[in-house]
Structure to design on (958 residues):
């Protein structure tokens, strides 16, 4: 039974996707952004083929603060290599483009991991609150209100401060502030759907819980969750870089866009190129996710269809 | 109306208690050890144990939390508790935590208010302009600007501004302090960028929506000047969602000033908070976070009340509730 | 007779998705002073567009008056400056919209909304304007003290009274009433119509009464015009048109009314739908649905034929009538 329901569900989805793509592709800016994000994703995935991680994290002080396009001699695995620093080098003589490439991987992982965590936790809590109601609902929603009354950046800072500085704690810190959003979306959809007559009717004719969830509840939740999570990937990357900038996220020598800028602070007068590449990388990534999110909202939200 | 506000204030109490509880719990699980910090690395185990007892760190969580709220009697480490506006002294500077907060908060308030005012003053007229000429060149330029503003990291904006206007053009100082207006220009611009973008987009879309409404057509049919149509008939309706967004922005400006203050070495609450975190100064962290959360909640309440003055439909909901009670 | 409004050869187009919607096509219509002209037709026939055109309220870039002339008391509305138009709107020509729920601004008191119109068009102080607004509310049966209230504090019927007070506040010479009762309950409809009839008589206002209800036309109008696909297909006094409907479409409208004398089973709806306004037929626009369609009808667009002032735009009547200048 489950299998059949699932396959029919998939079939319907594929038809929906074609229709959705037609709508989405009208928004040229969103399509361009999607393209950009895909390129960044490829760079992140194949970062090791472009620059070795050891290379971008080890110092070579004789090459410090090279201008974009300058070449320098690098000792790498006991070999002497002449290397062109396409975007120049930082104060430790590390290749900026290489650090950007590896930073893209870090940002990508943080963006997706935090959102996935937030969806899992927020979705579950929202589903419990919406489905069970009563005490669960009250409790979950009160805690949500409390969390929302602490400004997001502060919440993240406090969590990193409390749990200590590590990659996983950074993920927790960022995803915690996103959880309330998903709780609200999922709870609201479930409450609005669960007592509707067609769901009652489905239950009366003996539809299984899986079927009800797949056929009736999931489709109503997917659109807002997809839109929300796309926008959140962008802000997650922004927050992660902010925390790293403050020295509360990913610390050097690990390459991260925010900490690259933090390290650049003292040297911008002599080496302004340190400022532009990581800043533009963050700006473009966040902008792209925002534009994709807007595009998705227009394509998925029937209320806005004109 | 008064009763409504009172009720909302009463409803704040559990939320604020919850905030303190969450922040306190977070600090409780912090791996850092204040007793060790006070004594230094090579203290004797006996002295260490005595210090933990003096600081009240050997008590169970619930006792510590109760003391945090209601006070802790001790000649050195005692305080009257959060409810009486006293959280003791900073581990690092040995200054009274709340005094430090109250002396630095006005500085943050200046920055956040300046940023919000700048954002509103520019974003609302531009939003209106964009909405009255949708898809024109002007609208496109500002839409792009808003998109960029919403995607730029604050610290990057700050660094670019410092590099351009402080280091190279030497128009404004790179370090800010609350007594010198020219030093506040760059941090205010930095901080307002994101809010400006958000408020601009909100004003534009809200205004576009309102201009489609029937009552705007009615106003035009009555022969009203286009100025009256836009500013009297449309704007007040369009401002309702803008006020919400602006209120939320003000709250996050207060909290988000952290980065801006840090970069411009500005003596605000944000700087103090970050320093406290670096130095694991638990009382200071607790006090600052609770204080900002409280301010944020109170601002949200003020926004809700402000609604009533803009939208008569909401005001009558207040008075209807009053009558029923 | 004295004409208050002359519409000649009017063409209005809307533009959307690179398509042109031909909303008003070569429409000509005259209105006599002090009379009530009923304008009937299906939804989408262009009735509201016509009313908005009379106020020169078709807004670019979505819509445009392509050609034609609209003369109000001899002055060409389409040639007026923005300033002249603002003085005309609300003072000389007023309009009542279909839905009173959305026609009033929710954040302004009803008194303010009436008073600002008076203040704009008459040489009075703000206080006098407010006093007159209260008096207008009393005229439509609402206590003057309620002027301080907001639209959401009024019921639907009351709101439409406010809208009527608003539109009559400056004694307009022409009132465009766009389905003023469609959104109301039947009992409220009757009250509102009584009120309107009374006020129209008192102020001697000329009215363009837009409706899709033939019953309301008989009760309220002196003349009637039938509109189809953006043109007037039949025009005459109520006696002429109701006594002897000529155009197959008008007849169809009567046929689709329930006739209780012959039993409800006799209801005959007009088959088919109104033609797509982005792609109108070459000949008569009604030809695809017409029960009397002739080969000529699909080729040639008919012109007006007049019989003692009873005008009809149909090939059936073209040969046995003295062809007059189309109005």
């Amino acid at each position: 039974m489950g299998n059949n329901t699932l396959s029919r569900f998939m079939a319907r989805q594929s038809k929906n996707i074609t229709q959705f793509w037609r709508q989405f592709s009208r928004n040229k800016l969103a399509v361009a952004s999607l393209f950009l994000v895909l390129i960044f994703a490829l760079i992140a995935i194949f970062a090791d083929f472009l620059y070795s991680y050891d290379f971008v994290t080890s110092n070579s002080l004789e090459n410090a603060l090279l201008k974009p396009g300058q070449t320098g001699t690098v000792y790498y695995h006991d070999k002497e290599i002449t290397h062109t620093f396409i975007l120049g080098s930082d104060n430790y003589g590390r290749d900026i483009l290489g650090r950007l490439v590896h930073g893209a991987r870090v940002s990508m992982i943080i963006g997706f991991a935090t959102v996935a965590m937030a969806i899992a936790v927020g979705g579950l809590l929202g589903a419990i609150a919406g489905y069970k109601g009563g005490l669960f609902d009250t409790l979950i929603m009160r805690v949500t209100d409390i969390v929302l009354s602490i400004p997001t950046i502060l919440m993240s800072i406090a969590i990193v401060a409390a749990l200590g500085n590590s990659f996983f704690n950074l993920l927790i810190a960022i995803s915690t502030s996103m959880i309330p959003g998903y709780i609200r979306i999922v709870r609201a959809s479930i409450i609005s759907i669960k007592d509707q007559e067609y769901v009652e009717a489905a239950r009366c004719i003996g539809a299984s819980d899986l079927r009800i969830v797949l056929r009736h509840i999931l489709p109503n939740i997917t659109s807002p969750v997809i839109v929300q999570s796309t926008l959140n990937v962008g802000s997650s990357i922004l927050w992660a870089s902010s925390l790293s900038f403050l020295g509360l996220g990913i610390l050097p020598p690990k390459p991260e866009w925010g900490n690259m800028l933090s390290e650049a602070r003292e040297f911008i007068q002599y080496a302004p190129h340190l400022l532009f590449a990581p800043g533009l990388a963050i700006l473009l990534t966040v902008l792209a996710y925002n534009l994709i999110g807007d595009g998705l909202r227009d394509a998925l939200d029937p209320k806005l269809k004109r | 109306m008064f009763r409504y506000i009172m009720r909302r204030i009463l409803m704040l109490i559990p939320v604020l208690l919850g905030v303190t509880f969450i922040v306190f719990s977070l600090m409780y699980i912090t791996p850092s050890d204040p007793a060790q910090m006070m004594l230094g690395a090579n203290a004797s185990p006996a002295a260490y144990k005595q210090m933990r007892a003096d600081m009240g760190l050997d008590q169970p969580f619930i006792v510590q939390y109760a003391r945090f709220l209601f006070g802790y009697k001790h000649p050195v480490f005692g305080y009257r508790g959060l409810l009486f506006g006293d959280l003791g002294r900073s581990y690092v500077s040995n200054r009274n935590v709340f005094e430090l907060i109250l002396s630095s908060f006005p500085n943050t308030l200046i920055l956040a208010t300046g940023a919000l005012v700048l954002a509103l003053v520019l974003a609302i007229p531009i939003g209106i302009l964009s909405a009255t000429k949708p898809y024109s060149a002007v609208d496109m330029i500002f839409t792009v600007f808003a998109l960029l503003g919403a995607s730029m990291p604050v610290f990057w904006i700050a660094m670019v501004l410092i590099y351009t206007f402080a280091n190279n053009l030497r128009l404004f100082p790179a370090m800010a302090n609350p007594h010198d207006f020219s030093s506040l220009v760059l941090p205010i611009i930095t901080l307002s960028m994101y809010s400006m973008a958000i408020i601009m987009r909100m004003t534009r879309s809200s205004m576009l929506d309102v201009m489609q409404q029937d009552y705007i057509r009615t106003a035009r049919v009555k022969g009203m000047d286009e100025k009256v149509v836009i500013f009297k008939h449309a704007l007040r309706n369009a401002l309702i969602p803008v006020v919400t967004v602006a209120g939320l922005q003000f709250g996050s400006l207060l909290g988000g000033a952290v980065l801006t203050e840090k970069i411009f070495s500005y003596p605000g609450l944000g700087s103090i908070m970050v320093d406290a975190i670096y130095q694991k100064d638990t009382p200071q962290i607790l006090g600052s976070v609770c204080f900002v959360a409280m301010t944020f909640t109170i601002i949200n309440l003020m926004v809700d009340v402000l609604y009533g003055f803009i939208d008569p439909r909401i005001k009558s909901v207040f008075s209807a509730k009053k009558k029923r009670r | 007779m004295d004409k208050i409004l002359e519409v000649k050869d009017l063409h209005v187009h809307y533009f959307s998705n690179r398509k042109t919607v031909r909303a008003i096509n070569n429409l000509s219509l005259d209105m006599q002073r002090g009379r009530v002209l009923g304008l009937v037709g299906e939804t989408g026939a262009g009735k509201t567009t016509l009313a908005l055109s009379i106020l020169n309220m078709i807004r670019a870039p979505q819509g445009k008056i392509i050609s034609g002339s609209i003369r109000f008391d001899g002055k060409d509305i389409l040639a007026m400056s923005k300033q002249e138009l603002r003085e005309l709107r609300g003072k000389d020509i007023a309009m009542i919209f279909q839905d009173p729920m959305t026609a009033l601004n929710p954040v302004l008191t009803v008194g303010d909304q009436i008073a600002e119109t008076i203040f704009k068009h008459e040489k009075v102080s703000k206080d006098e304007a407010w006093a007159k607004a209260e008096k207008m509310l009393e005229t439509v049966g609402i206590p003057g003290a309620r002027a301080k209230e907001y639209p959401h504090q009024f019921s639907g019927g009351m709101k439409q009274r406010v809208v009527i007070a608003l539109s009559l506040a400056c004694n307009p010479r022409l009132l465009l009433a766009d389905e003023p009762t469609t959104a109301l309950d039947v009992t409220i409809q009757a009250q509102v119509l009584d009120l309107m009839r009374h006020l129209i008589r008192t102020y001697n206002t000329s009215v363009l009464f837009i409706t899709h209800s033939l019953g309301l036309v008989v009760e309220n109008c002196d003349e009637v015009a039938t509109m189809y696909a953006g043109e007037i297909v039949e025009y005459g006094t109520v006696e002429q048109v109701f006594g002897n409907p000529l155009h197959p479409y008008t007849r169809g409208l009567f046929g689709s009314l329930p006739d209780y004398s012959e039993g409800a089973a006799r209801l005959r709806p007009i088959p088919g739908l109104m033609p797509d306004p982005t792609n109108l037929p070459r000949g008569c626009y009604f030809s695809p649905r017409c029960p009397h369609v002739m080969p000529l009808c699909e080729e040639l667009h008919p012109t007006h034929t007049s019989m003692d002032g009873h005008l009809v735009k149909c090939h059936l009547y073209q040969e046995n009538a003295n062809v007059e200048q189309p109005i």
Remarks:
- The mean pLDDT of chain A is 84.
- Residues 96-132 of chain A form the longest helix (37 residues).
- The first strand of chain A starts at residue 71 and ends at 76.
